[in-house]
Design brief:
By secondary structure, the chain is an alpha/beta fold. The chain has ten helices and nine strands. The strands form two sheets. A six-stranded parallel sheet has the order 1-4-3-2-5-6, sandwiched between helices. A three-stranded antiparallel sheet has the order 7-8-9, covered by helices on one side. It starts with a strand and ends with a strand.
């Protein structure tokens, strides 16, 4: 396994794979890896001749009062984990090399970036799209692997790749959870013991929505009301949003239609720590 700081050096290392038409799989991360990230690396390893993992805490996707400087970083630990998973290349660019002083381009999506996380973080997905498109142009993968936990990010990137005619497939893998149901996240380490005990109620609120839909409930407002009743069992949780949206357009759903695919998505604060989760449901 080799680690690169320079985009040009990584491009040079990947030339031989492209010349021989060998598939390259790419897993973009911000580091502080957990089992959710590693499951994506394993999937990429199964399907490709070369696996590239980026580790880059992208400053463009953080707002001025968000946790950019607090976000956990441990490249040595991440490298050990990726070596065990047989990743071929780590790309850990330096911010000044990735975004030089004269960098001024941005990529934005007008519709998919506005709801859910975008409502409170209006610049977030512009930063995500800009950073990921730049990474894609460096790596030029056959397949890009993302986790379902960041479902809106998946849809934004999937749409961007389609709109920009970028020649790669975008693949989403299932959410990986702790034993008590909490979605794995690099931010979970910031939870206090009390907050960690309460955090699984995020997942349980979504399970209640899923259960009710399967039992015949179709009114979105009532589904959200029942989910919020579950979340009240976590007194330290502060709701950012709970929404039921169309899984493709991310537009709000008032009443579920039979056979439709919806997303129940939630974001919750415990202190300064913001956690997200979701579930895909057939109406």
């Amino acid at each position: 396994m080799k680690t690169f700081r320079s985009s040009e050096a990584l491009k040079g290392a990947l030339v031989s794979f492209r010349k021989k038409n060998k598939k390259i799989g790419f897993v973009p991360t911000m580091g502080s890896l957990h089992e959710g990230h590693l499951s994506l690396v394993r999937l990429a390893r199964e399907e490709n001749k070369a696996v590239v993992v980026s580790i880059f805490v992208n400053p463009l996707q953080f707002g001025p009062k968000e946790d950019f400087w607090r976000y956990p970083r441990d490249l040595a630990r991440d490298s050990r984990l990726l070596k065990k998973e047989k990743a071929d290349f780590i790309f850990a660019p330096l911010p000044k090399e990735f975004y030089p002083e004269d960098f001024e381009t941005s990529v934005s999506l007008s519709r998919l970036s506005r709801p859910l996380c975008g409502a409170a973080r209006p610049t977030h997905f512009t930063g995500v799209a800009t950073g990921v498109l730049k990474l894609l142009n460096i790596v030029m993968p056959r397949t890009l692997y993302l986790g379902q936990k960041d479902y809106q990010q998946f849809r934004v990137i999937e749409q961007m790749v389609r709109d920009m005619d970028f020649p790669c497939r975008v693949k989403a893998a299932p959410i990986v959870r702790e034993a008590d149901g909490l979605a794995m996240s690099s931010r979970n380490i910031f939870l206090s013991r009390t907050e960690r005990r309460e955090a699984p109620f995020i997942r349980r609120s979504l399970e209640e929505v899923e259960r009710l839909v399967k039992s015949g409930f179709h009114d979105a407002s009532k589904l959200k009301q029942r989910a919020l009743e579950i979340l009240k069992l976590a007194p330290h949780a502060r709701l950012d949003y709970l929404e039921i949206v169309d899984a493709q357009s991310l537009e709000s759903v008032i009443r579920l239609k039979p056979g439709s695919k919806i997303l129940a998505a939630i974001a919750v604060f415990f202190g300064k720590t913001r956690l997200i989760d979701n579930v895909l449901i057939r109406g």
